[in-house]
Design goal:
homodimer; alpha+beta; elongated; DNA-binding
Chain lengths: 109, 109
DNA sequence: TTATCATTTGAATATTTGTTCATATGATAC
DNA sequence: GTATCATATGAACAAATATTCAAATGATAA
């Protein structure tokens, strides 16, 4: 018979959050898991920006950027405000910075 | 003609890291972007564990877990040590904890 | 109203990715 | 050597996803 893990399994299993929470957490990280979106977030570190400025900066179509902004908005990482025809996007809160900073620390070792 | 962004673009563009760095960063986050891998990491918060114990805990095949551990190892989020036939996995460093904690903070608002 | 600018949206396509299955490796005991 | 346990690996398939294209919405100005 295989070796026994019952002791560890009960200890570890009791500490684990609900599946639903863990799913939400992984969905959040997968929003950071695309270089286009990372670039958008990084751009917004400095200034709020309109969609077409981001598109110009990243040399991508405005449609592609808009699709990605939708995901970022849905994950509550960015917010937007309208000014005439233009819509400005900005970082929703400071978790974005700290999460990206932690990631940078990890890869620069 | 379209509206002008040259001022913002030059300010923001100069702050942006190299594409290669941003790609590496997004690859790191995409490793966190899967609920199976998040569960594995969470399990390892408590104890080092062997592959078959993780498989048993998550009710998944040993092969699926092994594939995911390979990704986690490659991202330097986990390390392993061999003890006879058994290979124990453990968290490679504390960035894992802090990144996951920041993510948890963001979703619990 | 018509025209134009800024943005969003939906469908289509190509690529990526997670799991399964079957097989291979590696270590121990006999 | 053979047998068994623990893990890793490669190919195949299904599901998820990023971008493009075409069309729609929304706001302003003439």
């Amino acid at each position: 018979m295989k070796h026994d893990h019952s002791k560890i399994l009960s200890a570890v299993g009791s500490q684990m959050p609900e599946d639903e929470v863990l799913a939400e957490l992984s969905e959040l990280f997968s929003v950071f898991g695309d270089s286009t979106r990372i670039k958008i977030l990084w751009a917004l570190f400095e200034h709020e920006m309109c969609v077409c400025a981001i598109a110009e900066l990243l040399k991508m179509t405005q449609s592609a950027i808009s699709h990605q902004l939708k995901l970022l908005r849905h994950a509550k990482l960015v917010s937007s405000r309208r000014e005439g025809k233009t819509i400005y996007y900005f970082l929703a809160d400071d978790h974005v910075r700290s999460i990206i900073n932690q990631g940078m620390e990890h890869i620069s070792e």
